[in-house]
Amino acid sequence: MAHTLLPSHYRRFLLNERTMDKPISPNTYRAETVPFDSKPGPGQALVKVNYLSLDPGMVIWIRESRFTYTPPVPLGSVARASGLGTVIQAGEGSTFKPGDLVSGILGITEYAVLDDALLTKHELIPGAKPLDFLGPLGATCGLTAYFGIFEVAQVKPGETLVVSGAAGAVGSLACQFGKKAGCKVVGIAGTDAKCDYLKNELGIDVALNYKSPTFHDDFDRDVGFWDAYFDNVGGDITDFLTTRMNRFARVALCENSSSYSGILKNIMEFVVRSGRIQGFIVFDYVDKFDAAIKQISGWLEDGSLKSKYHIVDGLERLPEAFSLLFSGGNTGKL
């Protein structure tokens, strides 16, 4: 590995402008190709980025607002994104070595130099593949679904759990975690093909296409009322579902990919039905990460947890990949 051939140039995306009224615009990021002159210092590692995770939460990172859990990405700097990569060089005193598989906030770039403290080394476990460290075992995907279901929604056996955005990265895992908790799981998605995937591959109880003209009637017929709701989308779907809550229903508010206004209709339904809505971020539960990863790893090892990936190959196709993320064009982890 000491003689790894390094490129003369590499590509990266910089934050070009902030968007407030929509997820991502064509001018949000700016691509550039720069000379390769990266070298790790003491306690650092040079990482070749193999995969980047595209997540709705990336929108929060580019907005300048006091209503955020992390400082926004500075304009003109490398855009922020979680990723999976391979260590190419290790600086003096680094705990890593060339060839190590690592994850972290690598950025939208082909190569990155990062402090050891910002990287996590991974060893493959039985039943897992490298991408699973961005999927079921990743903070913005599997752990988000896990804590949303078990800590925020606090599902119980026999309850009815509804998941919107159910065929996406987080939603598909939330559905499976709900089944493992003994719930009747209802998945809401935007195509018949996605509903077939949820029913036939993931084994949930009810899958409904919200674009169907009979969606409301189908929900009333097949579901009726619900106890827990993992909300991935907000908007009209959530407004409808708030009129179908059982008493003491709970909502885990994850991402809001269809409505960025922050307006929730039917708020009085939570009062008259003694309901609860709670927003959360996965880093609220850092002290429980190890236990969750152990549990999820066990499900991967026994083959009972399924994951699906939608890979867009090539950094230059970033705008195309983002359009899939916010239009619902992907099935599984993007």
Overall description:
This protein is of the alpha/beta class and 334 residues long. The chain has 2 domains: 9-123, Alpha-Beta Complex (Quinone Oxidoreductase, Chain A, domain 1); 142-283, Rossmann fold, CATH 3.40.50. The chain has 9 helices and 13 strands. It has helices at residues 58-61, 139-152, 169-180, 192-201, 215-222, 235-241, 268-272, 289-301, 318-327, and strands at 9-15, 29-35, 44-53, 82-90, 101-105, 111-115, 119-122, 160-164, 184-189, 206-209, 226-231, 245-253, 276-279. α2 packs parallel to α3 (169-180). Mean pLDDT is 91; it is low at 257-261.
Offer a few descriptive terms.
334 residues, alpha/beta, Quinone Oxidoreductase, Chain A, domain 1, Rossmann fold, 2 domains, six-stranded parallel sheet, five-stranded antiparallel sheet, 9 helices, 25% helix
The CATH H-level superfamily of the largest domain is NAD(P)-binding Rossmann-like Domain
Q: DSSP helix count?
A: 9
Shape field: globular
- Give the structural class: alpha/beta
CATH architecture of the largest domain: 3-Layer(aba) Sandwich
Q: Would you list the SSEs in sequence order as H and E?
A: EEEHEEEEHEHEHEHEHEHEHH
Taking the alpha carbons of the first and last residues, their distance comes to 30 Å
CA gyration radius, whole angstroms: 21 Å
User: Tally of extended strands?
Assistant: 13
